[in-house]
Design goal:
By secondary structure, the chain is of the alpha+beta class. Helix content is 35%, strand content 27%. The radius of gyration is 14 Å and the shape is globular.
Length: 107
Amino acid sequence: LTLQPIVENAVKHGMDPDGAPLHISIRTRRTDAATEIIVEDNGQEASDEMLENLRKKLDEENSGEITGLVNIHRRLKLCFGESAGLKIKRSSLGGLMVSVCIPEQES
């Protein structure tokens, strides 16, 4: 349920109206501090302004609009603490990269 809206957004917003192929990459990365699930696309819709607006929405405590990404971000923080959540930036593929960060729990 965490990845489904992220991948759905990649398809919905990454599709090129001219019919260029959409590439979506899903991978994981583990560090000493956290596990990350990274979803990237090559979509053309991710402007710098849109990226900045998404980042601001994630950081706002009481944003009026609750999107799927904001909901996931808040849920991760509630379940795993303040270092958990989503990170959004430009993908090396040209579109959007959303990283789901889940910190390692102490045993």
